Amino acid sequence: MADPNAVLADIGVFKREQMNHVEVAEKVVLPDREQVESEKREASLRQEIESSSDRQLKHVEVQERCRLPDA
């Protein structure tokens, strides 16, 4: 950490004329139409999945099969 007294001393002798003016360019990137539509489709699909009930699902028996390689 810098010494607070040294920092204040440097601020006191700083010459504002030494600074250069800078133009600030703000970049705002908006999404494409395809991206917006894709996000809407994804949101509606998620909502549909979350709102679906378990009654629509069927019970399935799991059959495990273990095939051994030939000798």
Automatic annotation (TrEMBL):
Keywords attached to this entry: Cytoplasm, Cytoskeleton
Q: Which domain of life is it from?
A: Eukaryota
Kindly list the biological process annotations in GO that this record carries. Answer: actin filament organization
A Pfam family hit:
Thymosin
Task: Give GO MF terms, alphabetically.
Answer: actin monomer binding
Entry keyword annotation includes Cytoplasm = yes
Gene Ontology cellular component terms for the protein in this record: cytoskeleton; cytosol
State the compartments where it is located.
Cytoplasm, Cytoskeleton
Coiled-coil positions: none
Q: Does the keyword Cytoplasm apply?
A: yes
Q: Where is this region: Disordered?
A: 34-71
Q: Which family does it belong to?
A: Belongs to the thymosin beta family.
Recorded protein name is CCDC50_N domain-containing protein
Protein's organism: Macrostomum lignano
